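Re: your question from the hallway

Yes, I did run it. Sequences:
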Amino acid sequence: MISGIEGNNLITDTILKIAGKGFFKNPPTENSIVLLKAFEKVDNGFKLLINGDIFIAKLPIQVKTGETLLGKVISSNPLVIGLDNFVHLKFIDQQFAAGLVEKLGLKPDKINIDLVSKLLSGKKALLKSKIEDIIEITETDYTLTEMQMGMLINLLWSSEYTNKNELYNEIKIIKEIPFDKLCNDIFRSIIRLNNLNLPIEIYNRIKECFFINVNENNSPFDNRINKIIGLVNYLEDYAEKFKALKTESEEIKTFTYKIIQYILQKSIYFNFNFYPDFYVIFNKKELDLIIYSIEILEGSKGANYFKLDLRCGKDNSFIGGINGYYSGKGMSGKLTVPEMLNYNIKEQFEKILHTLAYQTGLFLNISVEQGYQSSELMYKLKTDILNFKA
Amino acid sequence: MLYKICMEENIKFIQNAKKKGLLKKENSNLSNLLGLANDRKISPKLNGLVIELIKAVYKISGGTKK
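Structure:
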């Protein structure tokens, strides 16, 4: 028994808890912030150095031997240390964050303070090695967006990635081009492809993957991703085997490149309950672009929180958004539209909703109201939502 | 059978992505194509509803041609 600690190590999934009658030479006081050093792995966890005393504890997170981390003393007898609940404040105090940075032995500059503040708001354990990894990764590139930074934090803290450069290479695909711009590029490429004389099979496949006719009932897009993946492979084969004309070949190359980016970006966002996508709207022989994003957050009582944001055209203007709850039985919430509300819009939507409820057998209770939304797409903003995952 | 076809298509897709320099390695934890295709949170029913809601909002907004 080390330092007179006895009893079981009681662990919850988010809090490191050490119980016992221990005698501490330097007992940490309640609510104080302590520096912990995981210096040796033992069968039942780690030997931790806290204020000069040694404790054995299981850690609820994976750490490497030698890791330094901060904890907050929740109670001193029995000793209970929280690793991820330093503050309950809505706004993180910068001075408090600066104090934590210094305690970890890091330079209290703006980047480190901002980073620690972000970790606090995301309820992440303050692991020195991970903070150093992020600083190293971002040092060469300060242009990461909020979302990219949020994603990087989540991944470094929660995934099995041990090689930070490998991880950074993977998220590069997100950084290369914003999703909305990518969708616009694909849309323009579709228009250019439409002006070429390609086999009808190619046009049919593109239509099947991306087109919605607003005036017709669309067959459900089953296995859409698989179809899009199939389309990329088909076009690659076509361009190679049939030695297409230069213009055709170049446009196909551009299109497939963008579609691969689109699939890879979607597959990354998918890890964070975020589902950006687009469709080409076919409306009376004219084509239009609609970009949308769905957020789904697990809710209680079988219903998930659902948010749909719709943008349209080359300038991605906001045309409507739905906030509500969805279960297998239906959806309730409100539709926000930017246009001045009038009776016609309300009546038109209610009629559509009524038909839709009848066709799908779903309970649909969606009210309409006028409102505004930030011009910036949601996926650039929602780092707090991303934190739900980890 | 469908799973096998999907796997073959996915492998080919990953090869194409690598060829274009968009993917560095095959076994990516992040770019999980099978996960993307089989996400339980976006069920076919919800997906169908989203498409209809998109159409409805597009109709009442007038799209880009207001």
